[in-house]
Amino acid sequence: MRPRLLLPAVLAAATLLATACGGGGGDKGDDKTAPPASAPAAGNGSLTVWADDARAKPLQDIAAAFTRDKGVKIKVVQKGLGEIRDDFVSQAPTGQGPDVVVGPHDWLGKLVHNGVLAPLELGDRAAAFSPVALEAMRYEGRTYGLPYAVDSIALLRNTDLAPQAPASFDELLATGRRLVEQGRAELPVAVPVDAKSGSPYHLYPLQTSFGCRVFGTKPDGAYDQAKLELDSPGCQRFGPWLRGLGKDGVLSTSLTADIATDAFLKGKTPFLLAGPWDAATFRAAHVPFAVDPVPSVDGSPARPFVGVQGFFVGAKSANPILAQDFVLNYLSTPQAQRALYDTGGRVPATTAVLEQVGNDPVVAGFARAAQAGLPTPNLPAMDSVWADWGLTQLAIIQGHGDPGELTSAMAGRIRAKIVAG
Amino acid sequence: MTQIPPTQPPHTPPGRRPTADPGHPPARRGLVGLAVRIVLLAVVDALAVYGLLALAAQHKWAMFGALLVGTVAVNVIYAGKRHVPAKYLAPGVVLLLVYQVYVVFYTGFAAFTNYGDGHNSDKPDAVAAILAHSETRVPDSPVRPATVVARGDRVGLLVTLPDRGVRLGWAGHPLEPVADPVYDSAGRAIAAPGWHRLSYAQIASRQKEISELRVPASEDPNSGSLRTADGISAAAYRSTLDYDRGADTITDRGTGKVYRPTSDGVFAADDGTRLSPGWKVFVGLDNFETILTDRDIRGPFLGVLVWTFVFAGISVAVPFAIGLVLAAVLDGKRLRGHRIYRSLIMLPYAFPAFLAALVWQGLLNTDYGYVNVSLLDGAHIAWLTDPWLARLSVLAVNVWISFPYMFLICTGALQAIPAEVTEAARIDGAGRGQILRHVKLPLLLTAVTPMLIATFAFNFNNFNVIYMLTGGGPKDPDAPIEVGSTDLLISLVYKLAFGGSNRQYGMACAVSILIFVVVAAISVVGLRRSRAFEES
Question: Domain spanning A159-306+377-420: which CATH class is it, in words?
Answer without folding.
Answer: alpha beta
